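Re-run with default settings, no changes from the original entry. Doing this only to confirm the output is reproducible before filing.
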Amino acid sequence: MGVLAILLIGARIGGMFATMPIFGSRNYPVSAKIGLVLFLTVIVTSNIAVDITIDTVYGYEFFFYLVNEAVIGLFIGLLASVFLGFIYFAGDIIDYLTGFSMVSVMNPLDETQMPITSNLMYIYLSLVFLALNMHHKVILVVAESFELIPLGSLIRAAESLSYLMSVVSQTLLIGLSISAPFIITILVADIVLGLLAKAMPGMNIFILGMPFKVLIGVFMFLVIVPALADVFGAQFGSAFDFIGNYMGEYRRLP
């Protein structure tokens, strides 16, 4: 196998880990990312057959294939990131309902403000990811990508964008499902507060309502935390299924 083919393999793997959840986080040391990409490149190189011819007279064709492989890797990692984005969507809803939206923390992945509930759930998600050995599954996905999407295959932009939209819709649905207990509970709390305000007009409902909602939000979070591990585990499986289906499209499409 030539050096050019090894560079193409490394470009795809590097693209995956640049956008993949947890591994793509800026909390993950750059030196560790580079070492992991080099290690996986060596492993994959020794286990796949490469059938690609590149004209290196001017280097244009190699540069085109290099960018193409990097984009394929970036998109595969992006699918996982977008799918697991239900954490942020659910956290936004929960924080808005419970009054935590005024408190935000820095998201190390893209240096934006992230709701405190989303940050807590993201940390929990990372622990579940490691506890279920999902990092082993990531390595398998990397290896399978070269079987389902042979080296040198061109990115299918139209199909990829359409698939990404379906992943986004699924993400919003999952985030809404996770936050549904909070939505229902806070709605009931608002009704109770409204009845109290009607029964006792002299009571300052605004001063009472804020800590009351915070207390309910913390209580609900403690109630659903034990079930979140199973939910996150199931969603990890769904995320890998989405990625596998996307890579499988390259064999089904002409």
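The chain has a mean pLDDT of 79. The longest strand covers residues 104-107.
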